Amino acid sequence: MKISVCRKAHFNAAHRLHNPEWDDAKNKAIFGKCNNPNFHGHNYQLEVWLSGKIDEETGYLIDLKILSKLIEEEIENRFDHKNLNLDTEEFKTLNPTAENICIVIWNLLRGKLDASLDLKVRLFETDRNIVEYPAI
Amino acid sequence: MKISVCRKAHFNAAHRLHNPEWDDAKNKAIFGKCNNPNFHGHNYQLEVWLSGKIDEETGYLIDLKILSKLIEEEIENRFDHKNLNLDTEEFKTLNPTAENICIVIWNLLRGKLDASLDLKVRLFETDRNIVEYPAI
Amino acid sequence: MKISVCRKAHFNAAHRLHNPEWDDAKNKAIFGKCNNPNFHGHNYQLEVWLSGKIDEETGYLIDLKILSKLIEEEIENRFDHKNLNLDTEEFKTLNPTAENICIVIWNLLRGKLDASLDLKVRLFETDRNIVEYPAI
Amino acid sequence: MKISVCRKAHFNAAHRLHNPEWDDAKNKAIFGKCNNPNFHGHNYQLEVWLSGKIDEETGYLIDLKILSKLIEEEIENRFDHKNLNLDTEEFKTLNPTAENICIVIWNLLRGKLDASLDLKVRLFETDRNIVEYPAI
Amino acid sequence: MKISVCRKAHFNAAHRLHNPEWDDAKNKAIFGKCNNPNFHGHNYQLEVWLSGKIDEETGYLIDLKILSKLIEEEIENRFDHKNLNLDTEEFKTLNPTAENICIVIWNLLRGKLDASLDLKVRLFETDRNIVEYPAI
Amino acid sequence: MKISVCRKAHFNAAHRLHNPEWDDAKNKAIFGKCNNPNFHGHNYQLEVWLSGKIDEETGYLIDLKILSKLIEEEIENRFDHKNLNLDTEEFKTLNPTAENICIVIWNLLRGKLDASLDLKVRLFETDRNIVEYPAI
To answer: How far is E41 from chain F (nearest CA, A)?
Structure first.
């Protein structure tokens, strides 16, 4: 049977929810306070879960120092203390909902991980709103 | 691949575990302190998880304001600051164990949600005792 | 300088807020949902803080096994899985608000502790409502 | 002896640390990532602590429904889903450090509370960075 | 559909990561600070999840008092306040990584549980490092 | 009025409680499981609180990057992934109770901080056992 390991991380960012194909009234109606043109922000908490077989020599699925460094390089350096809409390539044209941020993070990490490892990403936008990809 | 989103909620209620088909001695033996005829209570913490496909226009699986309102109307208004055994239809004849409360909540929400969305409910009776339906 | 140590504990109980000198309408107006005649309940979280001088032989202010046992005997056995209004002497005629519960706990513990130790009690009725006695 | 009660609340906001009397290089040197001209953001967690004497009729220091509504009206409505630098009067010319936000909140609440109540405000900018006013 | 219940527990232990087939330099290079010959330690938090069908008479999947006692006897008594490398049979020759500890716990509990119950074990080595077996 | 700021940190260490002036039986009787000659361990969580006047130019009491670096250099590098009894000068002859660790940390930091800043240290040995110096 496979085993899973998780490393937690976090980044603090500003964002605004907005669909440029809609007029202001519809954006306001759908996204409410999250549509504020001047942005708001969150402390995003991130859980990166990998699943696979234990390496018998180390007793590790993966060295968490390596996973931690990967998350720092690919995710924290890219998104921490940034405005997701203005400062990042990923959300120039993609609406930075928690769902889309979670999938973007999954894709950024997937490309850097060995194919033998399964990947799940759980993102807490607040303590009460959580997203997980792929689905639980 | 599908994505999942979760909204947390909570309600504070009194309850008593009791099987009316058993005598007092057996109820005491099986349910212990939880059988107290005068009731005890909990701060129930609730996680409602939905899974499905993202709406490309909004970037949402579901607007959490809608899910939050549904939980308020169907669950919080029904159970918050209530005596589950005495004040609710659902537990008049059903023993309000965490397991049964979790399944009742699942059924109440399932009937109000679009069939395209998968539903899971996680209920914390205390910080140490958790129930999830369907099974993890 | 003195040092403080804290031990956490918890008890799960039912209660109802009610002033018998008021009529039902006033009780409902003041205590709202907390006045439900059939009770509701909480997972009460408790922090007991003692302050004083370290014992040089042990390096302890107090052996936490002793404090933990005192809390179990004086507080948990008295209130856990109880209906505060119906099952306890302390709240037969005293309204079991978080404030009053906190002061009752302080008095129960104060009588059992060495006079050289200062005592503070912090009580969480929910994650969002906290009481501390004496005042911070 | 006085007793204290606490109500928790939260607001999600964008901000930028910046001193307009300094040039860009000094702002960058002092405030680092927090000086990002496009802003970043946080989930601010707030604890409002009041101290005073219990009302013997209610058993309350203060009805937490009243305190909760006051926090909503004075703090959450003002700061939630806002850009502190651009959308609020309070931080048009005041640098929105956690320290300054905490003192602004204290002043906003102080003016609305009975003089017999002592007030403390604790603000969590992240899980690791906390501010309290007046000092512990 | 099956339901899951979880009971949390914890134990505090010392350990050292080390592969006796490697020389000191390689152990240091792979395990870093965790290879300290004098050991370090953790507060391990444990979640034991069982899945199956509810007993209609009790409304329980399993009486959590029974599960709690099983965890105490099989896991806490064995590992709490121990040096995993020196004081336990299980890790005399097995490297006590979080992954291996999690699988050892799974095997210890699996042998004592009814075959109709599915078992998952989640182990927190720290707040940031988590392992789950079988994989999520 | 002064303001307080707090930075959290953590270190994982092994330790053993022992008084060399007592025989084994007395050590076992007083310190129980904590006297295990092979050590056990904890994830120590640390809160460092400073109080003083805000710098009007920065809006900071102290730059938390500076405080964070000080904690890393003075505390984390000294104690993280160490055996407190064997690997540190501070606890060669001082019993590493939570109380003594807290005071040692206070002294290490006090010597490096400006005299205008008041210092408090709160140390969590586990989630349930906390120490604070000076006393609350």
So the answer is: 4
Token duo for residue A106: 């999954």
Contact D133, D57 (CB under 8 A): no
**Is position E102 annotated as part of the catalytic site?**
no
CA distance C79 to chain B (A): 9
What tokens appear for D71 in the block?
């926090």
CB contact under 8 A, B4 and A133: yes
Q: What is the DSSP letter of A24?
A: H
pLDDT 10s per residue in chain C (136 long)?
Answer: 999 999 999 999 999 999 999 999 999 999 999 999 999 999 999 999 999 999 999 999 999 999 999 999 999 999 999 999 999 999 999 999 999 999 999 999 999 999 999 999 999 999 999 999 999 9
For residues C94 and C12, give the distance between their C-alpha atoms in angstroms, rounded to a whole number: 19
Closest residue by Cα to residue D51 from D99, D98, D121:
D121
Per CB-CB distance under 8 Å, the chain D contacts of C97 are: 58-60
Q: Tell me the per-residue pLDDT of A43-58, one tens digit each, with 9 for 90 and over.
A: 999 999 999 999 999 9
Question: SS3 helix, strand, coil % of chain F, rounded to 5?
Answer: 35, 30, 40
What's the predicted TM-score (pTM) here?
A: 0.97
Q: Please name the chains neighbouring B, where neighbouring means 3+ C-beta pairs under 8 angstroms.
A: A, C, E
Q: Where are the domains of chain F?
A: 2-133
Buried b / exposed e along D30-43 (16+ C-beta atoms within 10 A): bbeebbbeebbbbb
**Predicted-assembly ipTM surpassing the 0.85 threshold:** yes
From E55's Cα to the closest Cα of chain B, the distance in A is 10
CATH code 3.40.190.10 for C2-133: no
Size of interface C-D (CB pairs under 8 A): 68
Q: How far apart are CA B129 and CA E8, in angstroms?
A: 7
Among candidates A127, A88, A81, A80, which has minimal Cα distance to A104?
A88
**Residues C5, F100 contacting (CB under 8 angstroms):** no
pLDDT tens string E33-67: 999 999 999 999 999 999 999 999 999 999 999 99
C130 in contact with chain B, both atoms CB, cutoff 8 A:
no
Is E123 within 8 Å of E49 (Cβ atoms)? no
The strand pairing partners of E7, in sequence order, are B129, E48
Residues of C in contact with D64 (CB under 8 A): 129
Residue D135 at interface with chain F, using a CB cutoff of 8 Å: yes
Neighbors of chain F by Cβ distance (3+ pairs < 8 Å):
C, D, E
Q: Which of residues 32-61 of E touch B (CB under 8 A)?
A: 47, 49, 51-52, 54, 57-61
